Amino acid sequence: MSYFPSIPQVRYEGPSSKNPFAFKHYNPDELIEGKSMRDHLRFAAAYWHVMRNDLSDPFGGGTALMPWDDRSDSVENAIKRADVFFEFLDKMDIDYYCFHDRDISPELNNLAKSTAALDKVTDHLLTLQKAHSKKLLWGTACLFSHPRYAQGAGTSPSAEVFAYGAAQVKAALDATLKLGGEGYVFWGGREGYATLLNTDMKRELDHLAALLHLAVDYAKKIGFTGQFYIEPKPREPSTHQYDSDAAACLNFLREYGLKDHLKLNLETNHATLAGHTMLHEMTVAANADALGSIDANQGDELIGWDTDQFPTDLYLTTSVMLKVLETGGFTTGGLNFDAKRRRESHEPEDLFHAHIGGMDAFARGLKAAAGIRADGRLEEFVTKRYASWNEGIGAKIESKAVGLEEISKHVLSQPEPTLTSGRQEMLENLINEFI
Ligand code: XLS
Ligand code: NI
Ligand code: NI
Asked: Rounded to an integer, what distance in angstroms lies between the CA atom of residue 215 and that of residue 124?
């Protein structure tokens, strides 16, 4: 039985194809820098957007047509959704997926019942994964939708709510282990505050760190060897979220002795909300050896919230893939489409157009990035720009061989320093040669 009877298998047909259900650029087996595009890009689909996002917004209800979904909280409905999802993955030729516990199975307002449902659904997912050769990129617990988490989970002022969240994390880790998940994400949608008037920030941060340590310890105990990630986002839903950007997350991880256990899962639209480019966030993470995985999407410059649009901007995908290649590529991570269709794109086939566009945009970004690297001029420019640090006073400062007295003596013996142009516009032109 097919849930998308009118949608053909999506395949690579090349740039001249006019078939809307074909890849024009993503050619999974094509080798780039000696590795297949499939292995470079490690695409994943987000269960919450593909199967659970009805495209409602703050001003109106859902528009998405989901003829397979009876809208009930039953395990049967959850299992049927999983079947639909795997047909989608197959037709899209996407190898990985990601989920929150409450996307794949119902929240039943009782931990024992919710966990029992989760067990049943993950049994089915395991069967589907094997039958369809699909893998779990990462799992996570939804600690932000239920009203009990209105004031946070790991940072809730209520110890009982913290404990509930921790118990939910335990079950979600069990589920992720069972499904062979390569990672586990913490995104703290409610781990922040609405006002400092009622907030003990220090205590809340201590508790958030305690939750992460509990998870790391439990993972060791059950033999979960996947990568833990933390996903920065500055705001929305809360006024301020503690994991506001890559630098804030890294500082938090270092302060609480968690740096060795978690990497970052960076999302483009979250970078934008934090007032950064995605390249900035990736660079900060990579410098700390903490670039883990990517939630691929893009925002709308005219709208001030997380619009989670599918990535179509080739400048963006090129800069992302330049950084990914520079760091040696994904290991446990990948490109997870944490993206939703616009509310007007309510038909099931729009799910396909959206993912095809995102995959082709990243394929083009990958090719452009590889081209820029093979060309070598960009790298050479940056290397040359810092050449004065390789010898003389620069080398002595870097190796801490001189103090302020020696430096001062050096300056007194030299003419006024001269600068070389940063050549921003020339470099921008260079990038455009490859896009
Ligand atoms: C929301 C986040 C969320 C995380 C997973 O803005 O991006 O979807 O990726 O909890
Ligand atoms: Ni995300
Ligand atoms: Ni987001």
From this structure: 25
Q: What distance in Å separates the CA atoms of residue 186 and residue 168, rounded to the nearest whole number?
A: 12
Is the CB of 138 inside a 6 Å radius of any atom of ligand 1? no
Phi, psi (deg, nearest 5) at residue 297: -165, -165
- Topology of 11-375 in CATH? TIM Barrel (3.20.20)
Nearest atom in ligand 1 to the alpha carbon of residue 267 is 7
Query: What would the pLDDT profile of 207-244 be if each residue is shown by its tens digit?
Result: 999 999 999 999 999 999 999 999 999 999 999 999 99
Clarify whether 103 is annotated catalytic: yes
Q: Please answer whether residues 355 and 46 qualify as being in contact, where contact means their C-beta atoms are separated by less than 8 angstroms.
A: no
pTM for the structure as a whole: 0.98
Distance CA 299, CA 309 (A): 6
Where are the alpha helices (H) located in 256-375, listed in sequence order? 268-273, 278-287, 314-326, 348-375
Q: Is 90 a catalytic residue?
A: no
Q: Indicate which atom in ligand 1 lies nearest the CA of residue 46.
A: 8
pLDDT in tens, 333-346: 999 999 999 999 99
Query: Where in the chain is CATH 3.20.20.150?
Result: 11-375
Angle subtended at Cα 262 by Cα 256 and Cα 266, rounded to the nearest 5 degrees: 115
